[in-house]
Amino acid sequence: MRRGRLIVVSGPSGAGKSTLIREALEAVPELAYSVSATTRRPREGEVDGRDYVFLSREEFEKWIQEGRFLEWAEYSGNLYGTPEQRVDELLRSGQSVILEIELQGARLVRKNRPDAVMVFVRAPSLEETRKRLRGRATEDEETLEARMSTAVQEVAARDEFDREVVNGDREQAREDMMRTMRDIIEGGAEDDKRA
């Protein structure tokens, strides 16, 4: 059985990563999603174990000490990490695994797993990113500004990624994401850096 591919999807908050990943998971049966762990509080409608593994800071720090994360990072005052055991189980079973993680974590995965394929998702502009974050109405103004500051740094690092999907037109972005996932799984032209 062929081992699955490790796929890292990153990009600024508000880029539409979660929606594109969810659609790719529905359309491409060879894909599996690795649920991240976090210390942030659940948003309305989020379910523990499905959207995230919600941990206290104390529990998360214990997992770090036990070496249970492929990567972890602090982002906007909360800890986020990828439990390594589940990722390896899925890859060995032949599934390709999507990790949705922020830039710092993506860099750690690239360092620890150089075979990972890195995909950057972004809105067509920073102005659009701000509009989407405001439209969510899940953050206060201070948190929104912190996310925008981080978004500027993340967009500046997009050349570190193997592929890029620009999420402007929803249907086009969906098609680009599907094509990108299928190319990666099938071992397609990995130096084709832009979807």
Provide a descriptive summary of the structure in words.
- With 195 residues, the protein is an alpha/beta fold.
- 42% of the residues lie in helices and 21% in strands.
- The chain has a single domain, classed as Rossmann fold (3-Layer(aba) Sandwich).
- It contains 7 helices and 9 strands; from the N terminus they run E-H-E-E-E-H-E-E-H-E-H-E-H-H-E-H.
- A 5-stranded parallel sheet has the order 2-7-1-8-9, sandwiched between helices. Strands 4-3-6-5 form a 4-stranded mixed sheet.
- Strand 5 (69-75) and strand 6 (78-83) form a beta hairpin.
- The protein starts with 5 loop residues before the first strand and ends in a 10-residue tail after the last helix.
Short structural description:
The protein is α/β, with parallel strands linked by helices and 195 residues long.
